[in-house]
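Ex. 9. Protein: GDP-mannose 4,6-dehydratase.
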Amino acid sequence: MKKALITGVTGQDGSYLAEFLLEKDYEVHGIIRRSSSYNQERLEDLLTDEEANALLSNSNFHLHYGDVTDALNITRIIGEIQPDEIYNLAAQSHVRVSFDMPGYTLDVDAKGTLNILESVRILGLTEKTRIYQASTSELYGKVQEVPQKETTPFYPRSPYGVAKIYGFWITKNYRESYSMFAVNGILFNHESERRGETFVTRKISLAAARIAQGKQKKLTLGNLDSLRDWGYAKDYVECMWLILQHEQPEDFVIATGEMHTVREFVELAFKHVNVEIEWTGQGVEEKGIDKSTGEVIVEVDPKFFRPTEVDQLLGDPTKSKTLLGWNPTKTSFEELVSLMVKADMKKVEKEDKVKKMFD
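Predicted structure tokens for GDP-mannose 4,6-dehydratase:
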């Protein structure tokens, strides 16, 4: 039985990856940060009751207290587990927040990656342990070519992107310096019903569900013209695993090869709750109107703009498709939005039922 260690196991990708690996008969270990609240709460919030019970009751799933910024702690955990594979998904991954917390973002996203690589080296596990580093399309930032592929020059436009560029290069450096199987998966935007509620796609799907059920009046967003390559997180974790099964350690772009605006995401999300959006105005004055009622339900607020904007990101998944046999469009953009809105419709309905019980 292979052993896998997942940092960031309480996030969207970590939870999907844990389930995926358990289905492949792995012994899965996840790292969670210690807090005063119940330590499995984040996982239970992400998953349905059935999913949470299946994951947390699995005898091959184990949780450990730790933090990638604590080098001694990470070395101890890796030494005890002796994993065959490490998936470093831990990160401060909110781009806008990285401008407010650049130091913390650096500690987690850059130094955290170094701590894992150095621990594997010090412990003498370079021949045994394969390491996957979750890289990001934000490395490309001010894009130098379209679409972006493995050879496209980087130009990060946020503290998050800059911290992740260190993680990318230190992973590659340890691979070349110490013959480690350490690789980067350059993930483009990937969403799901488990996406954090502060991320724009989940913010939109939740707002569509709440507005449709009369629980919210308006949705406020930033740049509606931003173009992104959006895929389904559940499909993307399969590619992470395939990268570590590849014969040679190589870096791969994980993307769909399709691009859509935030505006398109809004239109499609509301379409799934039978609301047709009409747009009026431009720039910060642009508004989305419910065609049937004439009410303004979408507005733009400059506070959600980034100091340096990334206008478009479009990945080229040719290498992943060709060498790994991965299907980047197993779940279409339309299916992704539908999955998210349907899940949030159920979430809002459940919240309403719970509220009425205590009223």
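Check your answer against this statement. The domain at 200-228+260-309+331-355 is CATH 3.90.25.10 (UDP-galactose 4-epimerase; domain 1).
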